[in-house]
Q: What sequence folds into this?
C-alpha cells in the first residue's frame, strides 16, 4: 500500500502537475485567441438582450 501511495504521489507531483499547467495555459490561449472578441462581446450582452421594455410582473405579490 505504501508503495502505491509513493507511486501516485510522484505521478501527481510531476506529470499531473504538468498536465494541469498545460490545460491552464491552453484555456488562457483559447480565451485570448484572435477572432474571439465578437463571441465574448455577445456573451457579455446576454443579460441585456431584452432590456428594451420593462419586465412585466404578473405575480399576485406584485399587485399588493
A:
Amino acid at each position: 500500500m505504501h508503495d502505491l501511495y509513493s507511486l501516485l504521489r510522484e505521478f501527481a507531483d510531476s506529470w499531473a502537475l504538468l498536465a494541469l499547467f498545460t490545460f491552464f495555459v491552453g484555456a488562457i490561449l483559447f480565451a485570448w485567441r484572435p477572432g474571439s472578441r465578437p463571441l465574448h462581446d455577445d456573451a457579455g450582452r446576454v443579460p441585456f438582450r431584452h432590456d428594451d421594455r420593462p419586465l412585466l410582473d404578473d405575480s399576485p405579490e406584485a399587485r399588493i
Notes: The CA atoms of residues 13 and 32 lie 29 Å apart. The chain has a mean pLDDT of 83. Helices lie at 2-31, 37-44.
